[in-house]
Amino acid sequence: MKSLFILLFALCLAMPSFAQEETERTVELSEVTVGAANFAYLGVVLDYRFPEVVTDLENQAAKYDIRKSDLYLLGLEEYEVTFSGEKGHIIATYDQNGMITEAVERFYDITFPLDIRQQVYNENPGWMINKDAYVVMYDYDKDVKKKGRFQLMKDGKKKNVTIEF
Protein backbone atom coordinates (compact mmCIF):
# COMPACT_ATOMS: atom_id res chain seq x y z
CA MET A 1 0.00 0.00 0.00
CA LYS A 2 2.83 2.33 0.88
CA SER A 3 4.43 1.67 -2.51
CA LEU A 4 1.14 2.52 -4.24
CA PHE A 5 0.97 5.93 -2.54
CA ILE A 6 4.57 6.68 -3.44
CA LEU A 7 3.89 5.69 -7.06
CA LEU A 8 0.75 7.87 -7.23
CA PHE A 9 2.62 10.78 -5.63
CA ALA A 10 5.45 10.48 -8.17
CA LEU A 11 2.95 10.35 -11.07
CA CYS A 12 1.17 13.49 -9.76
CA LEU A 13 4.46 15.34 -9.71
CA ALA A 14 5.43 14.19 -13.18
CA MET A 15 2.07 14.83 -14.90
CA PRO A 16 2.16 18.63 -15.04
CA SER A 17 5.62 18.58 -16.58
CA PHE A 18 4.32 16.51 -19.52
CA ALA A 19 1.50 18.96 -20.15
CA GLN A 20 3.73 21.99 -20.50
CA GLU A 21 4.74 23.13 -23.94
CA GLU A 22 7.75 25.18 -24.63
CA THR A 23 6.83 28.33 -26.46
CA GLU A 24 9.00 31.24 -27.38
CA ARG A 25 7.49 34.71 -27.37
CA THR A 26 9.00 37.82 -28.76
CA VAL A 27 7.58 41.12 -27.66
CA GLU A 28 8.59 44.30 -29.37
CA LEU A 29 8.37 47.45 -27.32
CA SER A 30 7.99 50.88 -28.77
CA GLU A 31 10.75 53.32 -28.01
CA VAL A 32 10.34 54.66 -24.49
CA THR A 33 11.91 57.80 -23.17
CA VAL A 34 12.24 57.75 -19.43
CA GLY A 35 13.49 60.66 -17.44
CA ALA A 36 13.05 64.15 -16.26
CA ALA A 37 15.21 67.16 -16.80
CA ASN A 38 15.51 67.37 -13.05
CA PHE A 39 17.36 64.28 -11.88
CA ALA A 40 19.61 66.45 -9.71
CA TYR A 41 16.57 67.87 -7.94
CA LEU A 42 14.88 64.50 -7.43
CA GLY A 43 18.12 62.87 -6.37
CA VAL A 44 18.48 65.09 -3.32
CA VAL A 45 14.91 65.95 -2.29
CA LEU A 46 13.04 62.69 -2.89
CA ASP A 47 12.75 60.55 0.24
CA TYR A 48 10.26 57.69 0.04
CA ARG A 49 10.05 57.51 3.83
CA PHE A 50 7.78 60.55 3.64
CA PRO A 51 4.08 60.31 2.73
CA GLU A 52 2.88 60.21 -0.88
CA VAL A 53 1.54 63.77 -0.67
CA VAL A 54 5.19 64.89 -0.47
CA THR A 55 6.78 62.54 -3.00
CA ASP A 56 3.95 62.96 -5.53
CA LEU A 57 4.31 66.75 -5.55
CA GLU A 58 8.10 66.49 -5.83
CA ASN A 59 7.72 64.17 -8.82
CA GLN A 60 5.18 66.52 -10.38
CA ALA A 61 7.60 69.47 -10.07
CA ALA A 62 10.46 67.40 -11.52
CA LYS A 63 8.43 66.18 -14.50
CA TYR A 64 6.94 69.58 -15.33
CA ASP A 65 8.22 70.92 -18.64
CA ILE A 66 8.18 74.72 -18.60
CA ARG A 67 8.99 74.71 -22.33
CA LYS A 68 5.45 73.47 -23.03
CA SER A 69 3.89 76.29 -21.02
CA ASP A 70 2.50 79.51 -22.46
CA LEU A 71 4.82 81.32 -20.05
CA TYR A 72 7.81 80.00 -21.98
CA LEU A 73 6.80 82.14 -24.95
CA LEU A 74 7.71 85.22 -22.90
CA GLY A 75 11.41 84.37 -23.32
CA LEU A 76 12.40 84.97 -19.70
CA GLU A 77 15.57 83.69 -18.08
CA GLU A 78 13.70 82.18 -15.12
CA TYR A 79 10.18 80.97 -14.46
CA GLU A 80 8.59 80.49 -11.05
CA VAL A 81 5.89 77.84 -10.80
CA THR A 82 3.87 76.89 -7.71
CA PHE A 83 2.66 73.34 -7.21
CA SER A 84 -0.02 73.00 -4.55
CA GLY A 85 -1.12 69.81 -2.91
CA GLU A 86 -3.36 68.62 -0.15
CA LYS A 87 -0.86 69.28 2.65
CA GLY A 88 1.65 71.69 1.18
CA HIS A 89 3.23 73.34 -1.80
CA ILE A 90 6.43 73.66 -3.81
CA ILE A 91 7.62 76.89 -5.38
CA ALA A 92 10.09 75.93 -8.11
CA THR A 93 12.25 78.20 -10.27
CA TYR A 94 13.05 76.84 -13.73
CA ASP A 95 15.71 78.08 -16.12
CA GLN A 96 15.28 78.38 -19.92
CA ASN A 97 16.23 74.72 -20.35
CA GLY A 98 13.50 73.50 -17.99
CA MET A 99 15.85 72.66 -15.13
CA ILE A 100 14.89 73.47 -11.55
CA THR A 101 17.49 75.88 -10.20
CA GLU A 102 15.79 76.59 -6.86
CA ALA A 103 12.84 75.21 -4.96
CA VAL A 104 11.19 75.80 -1.62
CA GLU A 105 8.95 73.04 -0.31
CA ARG A 106 6.61 73.33 2.68
CA PHE A 107 4.33 70.58 3.93
CA TYR A 108 2.17 70.71 7.05
CA ASP A 109 0.75 68.08 9.39
CA ILE A 110 2.30 65.10 7.66
CA THR A 111 3.52 61.89 9.24
CA PHE A 112 7.28 62.15 9.60
CA PRO A 113 9.38 58.99 9.27
CA LEU A 114 9.65 56.98 12.48
CA ASP A 115 13.35 57.69 13.04
CA ILE A 116 12.76 61.44 12.96
CA ARG A 117 9.76 61.22 15.31
CA GLN A 118 11.78 59.05 17.69
CA GLN A 119 14.56 61.65 17.67
CA VAL A 120 12.05 64.37 18.62
CA TYR A 121 10.61 62.23 21.45
CA ASN A 122 14.05 61.12 22.71
CA GLU A 123 15.30 64.71 22.86
CA ASN A 124 12.06 65.93 24.48
CA PRO A 125 10.86 63.27 26.94
CA GLY A 126 7.20 63.53 27.86
CA TRP A 127 6.39 66.02 25.09
CA MET A 128 3.95 65.17 22.29
CA ILE A 129 3.93 66.50 18.72
CA ASN A 130 1.00 68.87 18.26
CA LYS A 131 1.82 70.35 14.84
CA ASP A 132 4.60 69.80 12.34
CA ALA A 133 6.05 71.21 9.15
CA TYR A 134 8.52 69.75 6.68
CA VAL A 135 10.64 72.34 4.86
CA VAL A 136 13.08 71.68 2.02
CA MET A 137 15.33 74.37 0.53
CA TYR A 138 16.87 73.33 -2.78
CA ASP A 139 19.45 75.30 -4.73
CA TYR A 140 21.18 73.66 -7.68
CA ASP A 141 24.61 75.03 -6.69
CA LYS A 142 24.34 74.30 -2.94
CA ASP A 143 23.55 71.48 -0.55
CA VAL A 144 19.89 70.80 0.05
CA LYS A 145 18.54 71.75 3.49
CA LYS A 146 15.79 69.65 5.03
CA LYS A 147 14.13 70.60 8.30
CA GLY A 148 11.38 69.33 10.48
CA ARG A 149 9.65 71.98 12.57
CA PHE A 150 7.57 70.71 15.44
CA GLN A 151 5.25 72.33 17.95
CA LEU A 152 5.34 70.19 21.07
CA MET A 153 2.88 70.13 23.98
CA LYS A 154 3.20 68.97 27.56
CA ASP A 155 0.96 69.83 30.52
CA GLY A 156 -0.70 72.69 28.62
CA LYS A 157 2.68 74.19 27.65
CA LYS A 158 3.95 74.55 24.09
CA LYS A 159 7.43 74.74 22.65
CA ASN A 160 8.88 74.77 19.15
CA VAL A 161 11.68 72.47 18.02
CA THR A 162 13.55 72.36 14.71
CA ILE A 163 15.57 69.36 13.51
CA GLU A 164 17.81 69.44 10.44
CA PHE A 165 18.49 66.20 8.60
Helix content: 25-40%
Order of helices and strands: HHHEEEHEEE
Shape: elongated
Secondary structural class: alpha+beta
Largest sheet: 6 strands, antiparallel
Average pLDDT, rounded to a whole number, is: 86
Number of DSSP E strands: 6
Number of helical stretches of at least 4 residues: 4
Tell me the domain tally.
1
How large is the share of residues in beta strands? 25-35%
Strand order of the largest sheet: 1-2-3-4-5-6
What is the rounded Rg? Answer: 27 Å
Description:
By secondary structure, the chain is α+β, with helices and mostly antiparallel strands. A six-stranded antiparallel beta sheet has the order 1-2-3-4-5-6, covered by helices on one side. The protein has helices at 2-19, 39-45, 52-63, 114-123; strands spanning 78-84, 88-95, 100-108, 128-139, 145-154, 157-164. The chain contains four helices and six strands; from the N terminus they run αααβββαβββ. The protein has one domain (39-164).
Protein traits:
165 residues, alpha+beta, six-stranded antiparallel sheet
In short:
The chain has 165 residues and is α+β, with helices and mostly antiparallel strands. The protein is 28% helix and 33% strand.
